[in-house]
Amino acid sequence: YGNVSVIVVSADIDGIYTVDVNGTIRNVTVVNKTGNCSLSLGAGRYYANVTFANGNYSTNSTTAIFDVYKAMTNVSVSVENVVYGNVSVIVVSADIDGIYAVDVNGTITTIDVVNNTGNFTLSLDAGSYYANVTFVNGNYSANSTNAIFDVYKAVNNVRVITNNVVYGNPTTVVVYADVDGVYTVDVNGTIRNVTVVNKKGSFDLSLDAGNYYANVSALENNNYTSKISNTVFKVYKAINVVEVTVYSIVYGLESVIKVAADVDGVYTLDINGNVSKINVVNGSYSVSMRLPAGKYYANVTFDDGNYSNIIINATFDVYKSLNNVK
């Protein structure tokens, strides 16, 4: 293919002969017993039949069979490896311009090669791929060089951070990630989902005093490999200042025991071994009682693991009253 086919007619009698080449009719003038014509034909098998339109002669003709062979052309496809998120550029180089078909893992794309080159782009998931090229032209037999290439997983950097806080304040858990989506955070066994938008997401937790971890699970996606950075943090005990006030009195009067505290709740009051539960409301508690003469202590305790207590207990006296005898 690419060369002209020369049809030669040889005859005993000069004149005009008709040549049929696969249905294409051409007239050939035979002079000195020979004549010819040229045809540009596509690749394939052909017949050439000749007839002589002269009633004075009976023609003994021979049919010729001939082939136009496919021409050879070299074509190659090349693709560079990329990281997911970048387009894959498929480049076709060929000796002959025209329409080529490229098969990338079963997806067929046609490309027009001009000046011996052409290309197109694909957005592909992470994975391994082949790119096979064929020439959509029956006149050529292509010597093809195909390609294999990879789309590598992108790295998704994920980290969770928190700050240490004092009990009573919310703990803010912040997740930073290269890829937006829903992530799972485990805080000491408490599971929360957080939606990362524009590479950041957060939520608040109200936690008791103690030591904590925050572990984040990566977004499930075959296009990414995650690099995770977890964290540990503390919720410190809050300070609770408690003060017991009792004034010394003379026997016969009531002793007034007052408790002032930063934190409301149930406290234990111990007066010389007599233990009772008291309820501090709005930061205070007060009780009056008659006690025998003597020396006393008034101690309070507050059993709540979220607080570190600074307690100021009290001692007091109930003095003997004076009995005047005449």
Furnish the topology, listing elements before pairings.
Layout: E1 5-10, E2 15-21, E3 24-30, E4 34-39, E5 44-52, E6 64-68, E7 71-79, E8 82-83, E9 88-94, E10 98-104, E11 107-113, E12 117-122, E13 127-135, E14 140-145, E15 147-152, E16 154-161, E17 165-166, E18 171-177, E19 181-187, E20 190-196, E21 200-205, E22 210-217, E23 224-229, E24 231-236, E25 238-246, E26 249-250, E27 254-261, E28 265-271, E29 274-280, E30 284-290, E31 294-301, E32 307-312, E33 314-319
Parallel strand pairs: 7-14, 8-15, 16-23, 17-24, 25-32, 26-33
Antiparallel strand pairs: 1-4, 2-3, 2-5, 5-6, 7-9, 9-12, 10-11, 10-13, 13-15, 16-18, 18-21, 19-20, 19-22, 22-24, 25-27, 27-30, 28-29, 28-31, 31-33
Structure description:
It contains no helices and 33 strands. The strands form 8 sheets. The chain has a 5-stranded mixed β-sheet, with no helix packed on it. Strands 17-24-22-19-20 form a 5-stranded mixed β-sheet, with no helix packed on it. It is rod-shaped, with a radius of gyration of 50 Å. The mean pLDDT is 94.
Specify the helix fraction band: under 10%
Oligomer: single chain
Estimate the mean pLDDT confidence: 94
Low-confidence stretches: none
Outline: rod-shaped
Instruction: Enumerate the strands of the largest sheet in spatial order, edge to edge or round the barrel.
Output: 8-15-13-10-11
**Main pleated-sheet profile:** 5 strands, mixed
Could you tell me how far the N terminus lies from the C terminus, measured between alpha carbons in angstroms?
A: 153 Å
Helix and strand composition category: mainly beta
The rounded Rg comes to 50 Å
Q: β content, as a range?
A: over 45%
Tally of helical runs: 0
Q: Got a strand count? A: 33
